[in-house]
Design brief:
8 helices; homotetramer; two-stranded antiparallel sheet; alpha/beta
Chain lengths: 257, 257, 257, 257
């Protein structure tokens, strides 16, 4: 059977006159777009354009909800109640769904952003609150999460489909968790290395961790890439070509889980 | 044939710890709730509670989109492009729709808030942009507007149902437009007078204008009331009783247009 | 020598049309006003009015900086860098200073708000960042803090004057820390009990903790009161009378440290 | 006597992770920096860095207050009360003053941003409100305005110093007003033309208007330039060189009015 994987990227993170990312350049090379919903980034007009851009390139779309912290780009931890979290997920997902509906698209997935994502991987109560928000609005949505995380547990328990996500441009710890961004060597910038790691991740479900030992990753459904500068875009392009050259089909995650 | 009319009220205008309005007290007496969507007022948690409260009292709900101006409560005129307006309508309507969906409700209508409402009554381009936003998301939604306004023209042309709205606690000019809030006597506070005017508006489609002459109002589908203080709540209660005592049924506007 | 104490209250927490607190009613009875600066509450117009109100009643003013989280009223923990904290303190303090300057007043103190306050009592890095912001703008400002806290250490080390603050309407743990607001009995509402505790705190520098044992409080310079409803205002009034009846002068903290 | 002129540029318009402008590149070539204050752009950390950057290059700083509209970058007209305007000016100017104070700098001027600037040139009530805010905080500040504008009248009447500002990269109408940005040819991009126009403006106090006739500009104290992209930076560099080659000194406006 042919190997398949999804490539996802955070997009639509501009805000008014504030431009972030190379959305036009990266969109043709990915299969799932995580679109910001106005809390940590994105505004209604940006969301509209992002959805239209995704449609033009036949890229599946998902909601990318974040903390209500534009000044911190959703990267600062906030301590919210489960009820607040649930309602923030419903709000942001509903807003993006509306733009999807206007162009005849459906939402494929939900991928929390920044600190909300990383906290939810470890905090069962937070993971549960996110999952409840998703289930309340649309139990057909796929949740993105790292294998073995609290998010996977919460989503699976609630009957949601989960897409296991890896980061081929990030260093891993031996237990399969990501090395902290603050650590030296945490981000891998060489395109060839990134592609090679991605192929290894998809084919053999593992990666060489920072300590040189092999970390078991389990199933891999989607690879996260960045598109915030032109160098990143080149990396995405190379990654896709490299995967396909190895016989791995790159398809939207909705076909995989 | 029995006369019927809807009573609508702006609700869900609290924001975090900032409480506005007597939503719990006014909800039992109205038939349509216009719920703020986070731009001029309201936050996701408030929206959730407002939708649940409406459901409990079998009150129809609509979206109450406003300018992105929390500090000015959406009451300050802003000069936005039609494309911005359209996307703000889609965003806010989509967000409220999501909360409605989680409790199995449907949105009945859209009533723009504050300066957006009053500007749209007179500005054809703005009215058109709002209508395009509504049509793009859900052409089944009813738009609230004053008779003879640009909003009515734009909505009708686009094939939307329109509910003609009157304000029985506000003084009118002879041409059927509202007297400016700044003018002395613009707001009528005596409950009996308000009820009497409402009955006259529904029964005879007219009102005595500020200059003593009769102003023709045309069709009347919904009466707007306020619920921002306990005195206002008493007025709403009295209004509903007064209408019913005159043989006028008070029903959600979805049954009327 | 006559005993003296300051009474402080958080004020100016309205925002646009969103009204919070009974500022007009509470101002005549306090000696230090902590004025919100637009991040967790307060807007420029509210700040202007608050400063003018304080001037009218000869109440000393201080800045009440909070997290940039209007939706959460600054009560939700946020994880910010020391550099962010420093600049948020400078920004908010500078903004309030400007309003003070326009009416010929000077700032007396800085009291962080909500989660920023409670986190800073325990977190040395956060306390240090706040202190650095204060020192950078005006080393003449007094910092409010609970005795024995990290904030006291950081402020003292930097050469700032510190006012030791107590909460006579809150239950204490035996080590002199506040009982969590979530615990039952954490907030004391009986006016007589609150006054009696305040007198004991000022006279004997101690309080009966929740477990019935005596907690040593150390020096007491200022008592925090709330003014968010009319009952709270009555409590403040009673507290001031009660202190004065016991021969304790109520004066602005600038005279005490 | 040697001719002198100031070159000013809007800076510090980034916000959190959202980067705008080439502040590092443009700062060495200008003499006055207009720094955003957090309403339409800029955040506390950005303000801190901007003030430090200006200090390093010995560039005079001024406040660049805007409408509270981050999503619209302060470019959308808003209809605010004079009291709101006054307090927004005090707030933003006070916040920037605080950062200036921390590095031992003083504010030189105030230049309103975007729609606030262009509206204030024509609206006497708005111009007066801005001026009142400036006077209330610091009557020593210089106000930037176009010659013959309502802003000049209001500032002069209040006894403020005014710096007459021109835009050498913008087309003018014959009455000395700016051509609308929407009109074709409104923005001039050729560096040589821009420099030539600037020299003519400073030397002869006039410019060739869009209709080919000469428009009288009156006194010229400061030339506004943009630094939002690398091409713009090159233009600034060329402009400064060109002015100096013509024997015109480029100095901060505080030396000129």
């Amino acid at each position: 059977m042919k190997l398949k994987v999804d490539i996802n990227c955070d997009l639509g993170e501009s805000y008014g006159q504030f431009k972030i990312g190379c959305d036009e350049e990266v969109m043709p090379h990915i299969t799932s777009a995580n679109i910001a919903c106005g809390f940590h980034a994105g505004d209604p007009l940006v969301m509209k354009h992002s959805v239209e851009l995704a449609k033009r390139h036949k890229v599946a779309i998902g909601t990318h909800p974040g903390f209500p912290d534009l000044m911190g780009f959703g990267r600062r931890e906030m301590s919210l109640s489960p009820e607040e979290i649930r309602s923030y997920i419903v709000y942001q997902t509903g807003a993006l769904h509306a733009f999807a509906k206007t162009v005849g698209m459906k939402l494929q997935h939900v991928k929390p952003h920044g600190a909300l994502y990383s906290m939810a991987m470890k905090d069962p109560a937070l993971a549960r609150a996110i999952v409840q928000g998703v289930v309340a609005f649309d139990p057909g949505l796929i949740v993105f999460a790292q294998a073995k995380s609290e998010m996977v547990k919460a989503a699976s328990k609630a009957g949601l489909r989960v897409a296991y996500e890896v980061f081929s441009d990030r260093a891993y710890n031996r237990d399969g968790s990501l090395m902290s961004r603050a650590a030296s060597g945490a981000v891998i910038e060489d395109p060839k290395t990134v592609t090679k790691r991605a192929v290894e991740m998809v084919k053999n479900k593992r990666v060489v961790a920072a300590d040189g030992k092999v970390a078991d990753l389990g199933e891999v459904h989607t690879i996260c890439v960045h598109g915030d500068n032109l160098k990143a875009v080149a990396l995405v392009k190379g990654l896709r070509k490299g995967l396909e050259a190895e016989g791995i089909s790159v398809v939207s995650v909705g076909n995989l889980v």
